[in-house]
Write a structure and sequence with these properties.
Elements lengths: L2 H8 L5 H34 L4 H24 L11 E2 L3 E2 L16
Antiparallel strand pairs: 1-2
This protein binds zinc ion.
């Protein structure tokens, strides 16, 4: 265990407000990934159907880059409340059980 992980294990768990902020961010990430999947799938279909239209191909490529860039920005907006480290997600949008840097537990939202 690193020094940060030892501190997190000995320290206080995250406060409710910190957890709620993480949960809200995770909900945004899940929704964005659902929308992005539909958009990227639609772009693929259009790209195949209208593959002979150069301006459409370029627009779809540009749109795809925007969707990916927004995902990266959303990901960067939130950090671990304890160590301020980057949050590593499962499958790109699901919060892990613990911070991979300091080891603080991220509780799941109540059902
Ligand atoms: Zn952390």
């Amino acid at each position: 265990m690193s020094r940060l992980q030892v501190q997190a294990a000995m320290g206080e768990p995250l406060q409710r407000a910190e957890l709620e902020r993480l949960w809200a961010w995770e909900r945004v990430m899940v929704r964005y990934y659902a929308i992005a999947t539909v958009l990227l799938f639609g772009a693929c279909v259009l790209g195949v159907v209208y593959s002979d239209v150069p301006w459409l191909r370029r627009s779809l490529l540009g749109g795809t880059l925007v969707v990916v860039a927004v995902a990266a920005i959303l990901h960067e907006r939130e950090r671990c409340p304890r160590c301020r480290g980057r949050l590593r997600l499962r499958a790109g949008f699901i919060l892990r059980d613990r911070c991979t840097r300091c080891g603080i537990a991220f509780e799941r939202p109540p059902e």
